[in-house]
Amino acid sequence: MVESLKSTSSWDFIVIGGGASGLGVAVDTASRGYKTILFESVDFAKGTSSRSTKLAHGGVRYLAKGDIKLVIEALRERGLLSKNASHLFKSRNFIIPNYSIWKGPYFAIGLKLYDLLSGRRSLGKSRLIGKKKTLARIPTLNGDQLKSGVIYRDGQFDDSRLAINLAQTAVDNGASVINYMKVIDVLKNETGQLTGVKVEDKESGLHFDVFAKIVINATGVFANKILKLNGRPKKALKVVPSQGIHLVLDREFLPGEDALMIPKTSDGRVLFAIPWYNRIVLGTTDTMVNKPSYEPRATVEEIDFILETAGNYLTKKPRHSDVRSVYAGLRPLVAPEGNKENTKEISRGHQILISETGLISILGGKWTTYREMAKDIVDTALKENQIDAKPCVTKKLSIHGNTKQTFKGAYSIYGSDAIGIKALEEERPELKRKIHADFDYTLSMVVWAVKEEMARTVEDVLARRTRMLFLDASAAINSSAVVARTMAPELGKDEAWISQQIEDFATLARQYIVT
Question: Closest Cα to residue 50, out of 511, 459, 401?
């Protein structure tokens, strides 16, 4: 990838940001036939895009707020994702428990509208069930005063794995995508129009001037930094970061295959409890923060809020000691004028900002609608620059790994690449060894992450190529040494690198442990 950067004098598109938005743009432009390069300053999906609730959904709560347009768009995109990345997509039942007689019919009617808006891409019909059936499906649900439950179906996926597959899809279609390559400045001509960017290779320290017809800023909560480099006035900044945290527990708290959805908590938020890789994900919160960070930290108040709320609905109340991992992410919300405080009321829709210099920024949005967002910004960029638009093909574009063939255990998330991993194990039988006794991840997946998925650090492997850090932070720390020693010869690294990686990862991972 770095060699392609050195050998190409000019590109059609430069994309800044390797999260959902940026990778979606790179897939869109590359698949249309435009010469595309993407820069990510850290690792793909390091920020918000690996820290979601893992839902590919229309958004039941957006429906309640009357944002029908966003719901229709998201439901359509959910259906496309289920076909284009079937190896990562899972249809799951969600149950809303009702503790008053009138709420059952109320939610049942609302979810019938949700079904209707899904159209032919519906995952299944919603229905009202009685107390007995509700408790049979979720035996750990608090049955006191329970009247009924409403079942509906929605989508679930693995966010960082989809991000990696999107990076691979972009490359499959001719793009160059480079992680650990930071944009440190913008380049302009004598009239002040943007002509490219200056980047720094964070591994070698080398700088490169890169030129393109169009520059897209898809950096999420960090969009303001690129806008400042571009010279945009500080008072015009619109991105409002909102923090959401998730707690990961053992399956004993929700032993079945159904997810739990609490539509309105004590402060008006939605709480999910969702099975995910033999764990339960509890979330989320919605707290405005002043300054974005790659490693936002959950506050004690946020952790206690989720534990207390979950404890109100579960027969076994989760405690701090039950939390296997806690992770926090920042949503790149776009605030309407005069509303920068109540982030719960800010739309999850996206906006496109065109600067006078020609920089085009995508602000806001959510994972489920990444493809539509990319199409929108690319169409806008081509029109704004008066470039003949080639048609978008991503609606039916199969994402890297997509296959009808199924694989068991940890191999399932790799889709068609599981064949390559198994072939690697046949070639090098020692790689069949597990990283950790409690997980199915193998050393072959570590080597594959380096060779085929651009993993550069232990964190890349344990946080985003596999999901161990998010599933069990202590187990991830215990696995860091074997991962570092497996990576080192593949990357040509020495003992000093191994020691530093183990130390760095332990420092990071301790932030994911609730004390």
Answer: 459
Residue 198 has pLDDT above 80, yes or no: yes
Rounded Cα distance between 415 and 278, Å, is 19
What's the rounded Cα separation, in Å, for the pair 421 and 288?
42
More confident residue, 278 or 237: 278
d(CA 112, CA 118) in angstroms, rounded, equals: 10
pLDDT band at 266 (very low <50, low <70, confident <90, very high): confident
Would you list the DSSP string of 157-192? --HHHHHHHHHHHHHHTT-EEESSEEEEEEEE-TTS
Query: Which residues have CB under 8 Å from 381's CB, separation 6+?
Result: 13, 214, 216, 360
Domains in the chain: boundaries: 2-48+160-238+345-396, 90-157+240-334, 409-512
The pTM for the full model equals: 0.96
Instruction: State pLDDT tens for residues 294-353.
Output: 999 999 999 999 999 999 999 999 999 999 999 999 998 876 544 444 444 445 578 899
106 exposure class (CB count in 10 Å sphere: 0-12, 13-18, 19+) = middle
The class (CATH top level) of 90-157+240-334 is alpha beta
What CATH number does the domain located at 409-512 have? 1.10.8
Helix (H, G, I), strand (E, B) or coil at 294: coil
Residue type, 183: V
Question: Which class is 2-48+160-238+345-396 in CATH?
Answer: alpha beta
AA letter at 27:
V
Residue 61 has pLDDT above 50, yes or no: yes
